[in-house]
Amino acid sequence: MVAMVDYAILSAVLFTIGVVGILIRRNIITILMCIELILNSVNLLFVAFSRFMGNVDGQIFVFFIFAIAAAEAAVGLALVVAYFKLRETIEVDEIKLLKG
Amino acid sequence: MQLAFWILSFIAVFAAVMVILSDRPIVSGLYLLLSFTAISGIYLTLSAPFIAAMQLVVYAGAIIVLFLFVLMLLNQHREEPSKRSKFVTFISVIGGVLVGVFIYLSFLKSKILLSYTKMSAVGGMKDNVETIANVMFSKYFIPFELISILLLAAMVAAVFLSKKRV
Q1: Which sequence spans correspond to the domains of chain A?
Q2: Architecture, CATH, for domain A4-99
Q3: Spans of chain A below 70 pLDDT
Q4: Global pTM?
């Protein structure tokens, strides 16, 4: 059987890949994709705990996280489009207007 | 089921690595789609068919399409050559991996986590949706309604941000 700790380690691996992706990518859309990856790893841990503890509350939290991820993606991408119309770039190294 | 878990987790991790390695955002988006689909299969091995279906509908359906639409709209198909120094990138990779190693070690040290070696007897594939509905519309009814306000606010924000300034 697959034990709880296997699911936890898979979740940790996906989380790490997401964090490294946020740090090394320079395209803001890829960074948003990595944020989705991190949210997914947390969802996986929620569902695994819910299944192994025999308690369905974790799956309801995952449902809420889905809604929040959808809202986050919509607002984030709208911000990216608005910024691109203003400055013609989506490289995070170029976005330093507030940096003094 | 064990075999399914290992194959799907391998696909999910491989696709996630390709998301951060490929320098074309479109390719990243398609690999992200593969990763989400594999994770949806992993939800099925955890006997959560409702969450698996929601994963396919919301993530693989809506969010990926949104990303690909914005990529097409902005027409930025390749990253510019890096102006960031190799050293900074190297240090960031080390830092990110270090965070992951700490999470991994804390999981391996956790007695609670290691005590769950097999799945609980209650909560199988059968009646999954019914159980979720019963709990969601009794215990979590107010959060469920608040989510609708959040989605409305996000919609208004997205429309306002992409509106042409006068």
Answers
A1: 4-99
A2: Orthogonal Bundle (1.10)
A3: 99-100
A4: 0.90
